[in-house]
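Dear Dr. H.,

I hope your travels went smoothly. While you were away I took the liberty of generating a structure for the chain from your last submission, since the lab meeting agenda had it listed for discussion. I wanted you to have the full record in hand beforehand rather than looking at slides cold. The sequence, exactly as received, is reproduced here:
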Amino acid sequence: MGELRLPLNAICVSPRTNGLVVLSVMVVMFSYCAHGANLLFFSGYGEGSHYLASTAIAEEMCQKGHSATVMVSSPFRYRIAEPHQCLLDKDFKLFKVNKSLDDMVATIREVMRHGYEGTFNQYVLKNGRKLSENVKGDCERIFLDDDLTQSLKSLKIDAVVYDSIFSCGALIAQYLGARVIALSPTMIAPHQARLHGIPTNPSYHPEVFSGLASRMTFSERLWNCLCHFGSYWFQLYTFQNPYDELKLKFNIRPDVSTHDLLASADLWLFASDFAFDFAFPMMPNAVAVGGLCTKPAKPLSQDLEDFVQSSGPHGVIVFSLGTYVTNSIPLEFFRLVTEALTRLPQKVVMQYPGQPPDFLVKLRDQIRTMPWIPQNDLLGHEKTVALVYQGGNNGLHEAVYHGIPLVILPAMADQHDIAVRAKDRGVGESLEIQTLVASELETVIRTVITNTSYTENMKRISAIFHDRPERPVQRAAYWIEHVIKYGGDYMRTSGSYGHLNVFQAYLIDVLVFILVVACTIALSFRYFTKVSLRFLLALSKSRSNKAKEQ
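The corresponding predicted structure, in token form, is as follows:
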């Protein structure tokens, strides 16, 4: 798929050939529009919100007449059998890893457990390089699989949409000679923005995982500044540099570093929306597409609908910590949560994978537990009054879409950042999951439900979110089509693609130069002043001595 170019003399023609030219142009344009692009979607292994966000775009591109191929790892092959709107079984490509589904789930649960215990950041700092090496090993297996690589080459891929957490996707795109489109399924991280040439300022743009708001005290700005530069170097060392070896081994752009290769992406899509997120400067190569999975609510099953309707005027609370978090925390935590929920007049729909404990079974008339809940459909129900959840990005935008206030129990990663934004925007409150007390949880939920300002603020944000000419997934599809035709070079600043390092981007080199020049001038002035004073003193002394002799 290339850019459509017409020679200038095709417009200035004689009347006799005008009809033929117009017909030819129409044929060319019809042919260009009729043949869709070939896209490859790589979201890592194929699990969680990362996969859902990527697949939402794949479905949209498929419905627009493009060919969308989705890569998933062999342990998650069940994704192929899931119902899809447009994608077919043949649209999936499996890549092999040396882990079973149980092994991968166990790793995810271990990470979640550290989140619940409040040691997530320490765990990542300690084990980040090891985890990255494991992911890099799985990436290498993709390029060693000749059948898979030949199959991908035969598709003549025009663009690869890859999850920015998994650098392997950018290598795949370069290997196939395709456009590179990065998709960040979380709120924008300043260190990622810097990678793509977008100006960031630690004085008001909080770093991801920092749990800070945009208005900061001096100590918070100092901490955010340290987080900002620390995150940049940690990402460089842990998640980028290890891939330099793979690039050389498979001859994938050996002339540039992995950092520069990632920075060369034609487009950067990030799952955030300024109706909720803090505002910051943008560049045209970055597009906000928060809410990729949002959609209108569908009717509930009759049994669930009857339960929701039985809540009467008090309404329903939706409680969900996600499958992996729920399976990674002790039973006593749910006993505590149940104690708080039973003190409220609302009924509760709770996600609880597996067999619920006896104390929840006995409360079935007030708390309905389900292994999987239709969260979007529940949030769109008129009886729903609040969402109590862990602070995930998809759940956030579903709540924004339907205008439901939040009570957030953040455990890890960007969940604390979402909690801070919810509180700052006046659409929810948060409590630390590690130190949760039943009475405090009850009070906060009751406050969010009874204080109408939370709902009003969320309804306003929801109205802003909906007041757009297209849905987020349609916005993503438009810009993908655009860069397939025209590329993204013209949208990048000189601060991207490795043209500027950190010292150049923040003018540290210029400031050091100015400081050196200023110090040189000051020292020179001091030196000449000192010499001049000595000369004047010597001259004065000499004249005084001559006067005495006379």
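Two observations you may find useful: The longest strand covers residues 67-73. The CA atoms of residues 205 and 214 lie 6 Å apart.

With kind regards,
E. W.
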